[in-house]
Amino acid sequence: xxxxxxxxxxxxxxxxxxxxxxxxxxxxxxxxxxxxxxxxxxxxxxxxxxxxxxxxxxxxxxxxxxxxxxxxxxxxxxxxxxxxxxxxxxxxxxxxxxxxxxxxxxxxxxxxxxxxxxxxxxxxxxxxxxxxxxxxxxxxxxxxxxxxxxxxx
Amino acid sequence: xxxxxxxxxxxxxxxxxxxxxxxxxxxxxxxxxxxxxxxxxxxxxxxxxxxxxxxxxxxxxxxxxxxxxxxxxxxxxxxxxxxxxxxxxxxxxxxxxxxxxxxxxxxxxxxxxxxxxxxxxxxxxxxxxxxxxxxxxxxxxxxxxxxxxxxxxxxxxxxxxxxxxxxxxxxxxxxxxxxxxxxxxxxxxxxxxxxxxxxxxxxxxxxxxxxxxxxxxxxxxxxxxxxxxxxxxxxxxxxxxxxxxxxxxxxxxxxxxxxxxxxxxxxxxxxxxxxxxxxxxxxxxxxxxxxxxxxxxxxxxxxxxxxxxx
Lengths: 153, 310
Hints:
The structure holds two protein chains of two kinds. Chain A is mainly alpha-helical. Helices cover about 65% and strands about 5% of the residues of chain A. Chain A contains six helices and four strands, in the order H-E-E-H-E-E-H-H-H-H. The longest helix of chain A has 29 residues, at about 90-115. The mean pLDDT of chain A is about 85. Chain B has ten helices and twelve strands. At the A-B interface, helix 1, strand 1, helix 2, helix 5 and helix 6 of A face helix 2, helix 3, strand 2, strand 8 and helix 7 of B.
């Protein structure tokens, strides 16, 4: 059907997406219940409550936690091993664009945490790390291996 | 090509000129095969080169992203990033530091002084509600929603700071701000950037706006969670200030008029706290006494005894 396409990008991507879904889901749950119960330090530089209740915690009225959840849901659909084996160009492009959008958002939110809010949220940071890892594996695998070939009948 | 070149070789087997022709054809076939193999190797080498070039580009992009993140962190750690224009306009520093002596004076006004203050200037007090319990960190939650520009909030923070200081400690302590210059210019504290710890209650402050004008409003600072916003809307229709005492009592307005504090300096107000002979001192002290009574009754179960039973 196709030349050997490594399985690791699909497996790694799926694992990272599932972890990201878990954390983003927790942050979303906390947002809609009470952020004050977040299991996170609230002293000094590490202060989840300060971050998740800041003006940067929503974009156009949509909580950033929900945006994170949507990001990982869509990314999971693009990262499952079966999708990595798909030969269509749009799949690779969509995966790269989505991963780039994710890492761009991470840079913006990190800037906001460090310079505007002046506090770091550990849960958010774990989502940021997962997004950067996802970006790394996606870019590396997409550029290192040729797309799987279309099956010839 | 190879199929047609095989034909003469089969026909001419055994005859002299035909054998020569066959040998030549075989030679040409082998050359073609070698050429094809060379081409295939070249193609493969080109593909490998392209792949390794793409791989380098990929690693470069990843390194670039990591470098950007690293630079942000380094700039922050080096302490040279706090002065960006966006940071200062959207999220002002948590006020100007207040001398410890002033804070100590305000926080340690004796309970007897607070209780003996005239209540003639007190306009409102916390009201009982029948809401679900509000808790945070396993303790009753005192939720405060205000805004730095808001003069009513400016007035309310004085007694709130005094009352909270009887049940726990701020670290870092609140900074000094004033309400919007065009809106009372009330000297006050800000709870933005503070941390409060108490064995009896959790204090959750949300300063929704700064005192920096932006268009027809003010620059946002903190966003209440959806749950906080629902509570705030349902109980106080989104008005400032809003204080919820563990879901048991609420305060939806400043306890006393901010007018007398307008355009005064922070020190001028601080010096009157604990002095019941001035209207400002009496208003703040009596308001603080009412808050302490509310916290003792609704949140701390009468603890600490030194505060609640005096």
